[in-house]
Amino acid sequence: MRADAKLDHAIENLVDGAFYNSGQCCCGVERIYVDAAVFDDFVEGFAELTRKYVVGNPLDASTTLGPMARGSFADTVRGQIAEARRKGATALINMKVEGDRPGSPYLAPEVLTNVNHQMEVMREEASGPSSAS
């Protein structure tokens, strides 16, 4: 993202693009490269908006992020996030979600910074509610 981007507009649309359909869209936003001049403000706004998501049953009106299609898909994303953190990525959300455990399709959204191309989350399709900046 360029330094002259309209941050509020960019953040709103990129968060939606990253987490739409629990991140399970072929056009889902997975990696965001941000100009150093706006990086801190962008990441702060992106994380703040992400923290407002409510993970739960899609039949519940308060839910804004439903489960993934299969627990194994969520486990793949959990593994990518864990591997990135072991290699130095910073997780900014760390949201506690009922049912977010191995084998479950419920997965809390996550935003990672300090990522690099040695991490699976940067090289592989995540297809889940995570975004790397």
What keywords describe this structure?
133 residues; mainly alpha; 4 helices; globular
- Tell me the domain tally: 1
Tell me the fraction of residues in β-strands, as a range: 5-15%
The neighbouring-strand order within the major sheet is: 1-2-3
The CATH superfamily title: Aldehyde Dehydrogenase, Chain A, domain 2
CATH architecture title: 3-Layer(aba) Sandwich
Number of strands: 3
- Enter the CATH topology name: Aldehyde Dehydrogenase, Chain A, domain 2
| Residue runs with pLDDT of under 50 for 5 or more positions | none
Structural class: mainly alpha
**CATH domain class name:** Alpha Beta
**Average predicted confidence as pLDDT:** 89
Q: What oligomeric state do these chains adopt?
A: single chain
Residue share in helix:
25-40%
Give the termini distance in whole angstroms.
10 Å
Give the gist of this structure.
With about 130 residues, the chain is mainly α. About 35% of the residues lie in helices and about 5% in strands.
Task: Give an overview in words.
This protein has 133 residues and is mainly alpha-helical. It has a single domain, classed as Aldehyde Dehydrogenase, Chain A, domain 2 (3-Layer(aba) Sandwich). It is 34% helix and 7% strand. It contains four helices and three strands, in the order H-H-H-E-E-H-E. It has helices at residues 7-19, 39-50, 71-86, 120-123, and strands spanning 90-91, 110-113, 130-132. It has a three-stranded mixed beta sheet with strand order 1-2-3, sandwiched between helices. Helix 4 links the parallel strand 2 and strand 3. Helix 1 (7-19) packs across helix 2. The relative contact order is 0.21.
